[in-house]
Write a structure and sequence with these properties.
248 residues, alpha/beta, 8-stranded parallel barrel, 10 helices, 8 strands, binds 2-phosphoglycolic acid
């Protein structure tokens, strides 16, 4: 199975950065194309620019969020179909920054994932516990609840990706130990398989949270880790190319 490396640019980037980073990623992906699938998720305003640079290469593109509805009077939002028309094949849904700053519930995340699938996009459904939940020993309960409520029935027979992103690891420089990642990913896989009836081999669980060039290889070599979702380190050309190389 190819490893999946997804870049989440968040609300960073401009046209010059989009051009040079996309071109560097295209060059790096070519060297490792048999072993890695790379997806860039720029902000909406840079989608067309990124698409123009990755066109014809193996690098794919995704949105960072989409609306539940196919269209409507929703100022500032973007629809799954708009992402698709811009050239996206993926969309991140339920990122903890959306859950936190936009009060998105797992139920809404589930509706977004449904819309994505109906539009022909592959949803990257994010789950993860907060620091407080972890300290209280609630990690598995929280993940189980998020899996139960965030994965739509449409996903049972269509492609989707899960991303385990412990909220306390995002942008903090802290990561769980490799043993912890293995344990949690194995748990997520089995719980999702039980809950959805999907064969375990079809369930891809990415790890996200302070992934960088120096820890990417070890994390991606861990059992149950299908790839990585990278924030901060995906904005640095050199660093991100080394993460791609670590998968290949
Ligand atoms: P980080 O972010 O790599 O900067 O920790 C990951 C994410 O938020 O997807």
């Amino acid at each position: 199975m190819k490893k999946i490396v997804i870049a989440n640019w968040k609300m960073y980037g401009d046209l010059a950065m989009a051009a040079s980073l996309s071109q560097a990623v295209v060059r790096e992906e070519k060297l490792h194309t048999a072993k890695v699938s790379v997806v860039l998720c720029p902000p909406a305003s840079l989608l067309f620019s990124v698409a123009s640079h990755i066109g014809g290469s193996g690098v794919k593109m995704g949105g960072q969020d989409c609306h539940i509805q196919p269209e409507g009077a929703y100022t500032g939002d973007i629809s799954a179909n708009m992402l698709k028309q811009a050239g996206c094949q993926y969309v991140i849904v339920g990122h903890s920054e959306r859950r936190k700053f936009h009060n998105e519930s797992s139920r809404q995340v589930c509706q977004k994932a449904t819309r994505a699938i109906k539009t022909g996009l592959i949803p990257v459904i994010c789950i993860g516990e907060t620091e407080e939940e972890r300290t209280e020993g609630k990690t598995k309960d929280i993940l189980a609840e998020q899996i139960r409520e965030s994965i739509p029935e449409e996903a049972f027979s269509n492609d989707f990706i899960l991303a385990y992103e412990p909220v306390w690891a995002i942008g903090s420089g802290k990561t769980p130990t490799v043993d912890d990642i293995r344990e949690i990913h194995t748990y997520i896989e089995s719980f999702t398989a039980k809950r959805t009836g999907i064969d375990k081999s079809r369930i891809s669980v990415l790890y996200g949270g302070s992934v960088k060039a120096s820890n990417a290889r070890e994390i991606m070599a861990t059992d149950g880790v299908a790839g990585v979702l990278v924030g901060g380190a995906s904005l640095k050309e050199d660093e991100f190319c080394r993460i791609i190389a670590a998968a290949g």
